[in-house]
Amino acid sequence: MPRVTALRPARPGRVLVELDGERWRTVPVEVAVRTGLEVGLELDRPRLRTFRRELRRGDALAAGVRALARRDRSEQGLRGVLERKGVGERERDETVAALQRYGALDDGRFALARAAALAERGLGDAAIAFRLERDGVDQEHSAPALAALEPERERAARLSERRGTGARTARWLAARGFAPESIETAIAPSEGPELGYENP
């Protein structure tokens, strides 16, 4: 039965494990702590199973942290990343729960920031709602995010001031997900009946 003969510091946050005097592998420090690795410990089958389980959990959490470090994501978005990386369902659930506890994963915060960014890019409420749904945000979080935005009519009016108030601008606003009533208030009243745009 293999025996742990040394635990040596490796790169930051990891420890090199030696079995029977031979280098075995480097593992995250937290995995070594959770599995009770210590010099003299025999790695029998139950301990090895526990070790492998903890290693999978540690790898899944590290993958989740890296994904969120690149950009904020919804829960569903993060689950998709982990699944594509081959993380099992149990480890995905544990990773999501842990990151939510630590505040690193929050659908409400994600929805607010994403909606604000999309509005800044000139999208109307319908287009923003569609993008949030595509990002995996449910109605419970997307509705407050949309409600927190500057009213759509005011956004449409500001855009029409920059682009002009004719039929071309009306069609452009419609294509970007603005509601017909928001478009009507944003364009010149005299041009309203003859604009000839359709809301997608």
Task: Describe what this molecule looks like in 3D.
With 200 residues, this protein is mainly alpha-helical. Helix content is 58%, strand content 10%. The protein is built from 10 helices and 3 strands; from the N terminus they run E-E-E-H-H-H-H-H-H-H-H-H-H. Strands 1-2-3 form a 3-stranded antiparallel sheet. Strand 1 (4-9) and strand 2 (14-19) form a beta hairpin. Helix 2 (45-70) packs across helix 4 (89-101), helix 5 packs across helix 6 and helix 6 (125-134) packs antiparallel against helix 7 (139-147). It is rod-shaped, with a radius of gyration of 26 Å. It starts with a strand and ends in a 14-residue tail after the last helix. 28% of the residues are buried. Residues 190-196 have low confidence and may be disordered.
Keywords:
three-stranded antiparallel β-sheet; 200 residues; rod-shaped; mainly alpha; 10% strand
Brief rundown of the structure:
With 200 residues, this protein is mainly alpha-helical. The chain is built from 10 helices and 3 strands, in the order E-E-E-H-H-H-H-H-H-H-H-H-H.
Walk me through the topology.
Elements: E1 4-9, E2 14-19, E3 22-28, H1 29-34, H2 45-70, H3 75-84, H4 89-101, H5 107-120, H6 125-134, H7 139-147, H8 152-163, H9 167-175, H10 180-186
Antiparallel strand pairs: 1-2, 2-3
